[in-house]
Amino acid sequence: MKHMFGLDQKVAIITGASGALASSVAKSLGKAGVALALLSRNEGAVLPLCEEIVENGGRANVYGADILSEASLQSVKNDILRDFKRIDILLNIAGGNLPGATIAPDKTIFDLSMEDFKKVVDLNLNGTVLPSLVFGKTMAEQQSGVIINYSS
Questions:
Q1: Cβ(130)–Cβ(68) under 8 Å?
Q2: How many domains in the chain?
């Protein structure tokens, strides 16, 4: 039963690992014994988090990845499988917004920047679907795995 529901020795990928929410999740999972693959466009921003997890007895690696690039995700998937041998959990936490994609109280819908809006939709929608397809394929081949999508 513990093997089925326990987190110890599981391998989790976290997208958007440089963000506040993802870093908090990573710390908690690291304490629970989950090995972590921390993904970010900015590897340097995630290194302190990785070091903290390792210093507290956890296992974590940082990987530079563009979640909107299938080639980038395929490459990092190969690296993760080389380092951890499997993928048990995918946490799609990457996301964000741009000032031009929202409407301030003193603005109207006609002030919305469609260019910024499209970038936000691409990041928040496709940035969840694409990692799910790439990493989910490995989970399907393993006949096990969990994908958790965060949204705000």
A1: yes
A2: 1
Range of the domain at 84: 2-149
Sheet of 89-92: strand order equals 59-64, 35-40, 11-15, 89-92, 146-149
pLDDT at 1: 47
CA distances from 51 to 44, 56, 123 (A): 11, 9, 27
- Which residue from 75, 70, 65, 62 is spatially nearest to 126, judged by alpha carbons? 70
d(Cα 117, Cα 77) in Å, to the nearest integer?
A: 29
Kindly state the helix (H) or strand (E) to which residue 152 belongs, with its residue range. Answer: none
The CATH number of whichever domain residue 137 belongs to comes to 3.40.50.720
Region 113-127: mean pLDDT is: 95
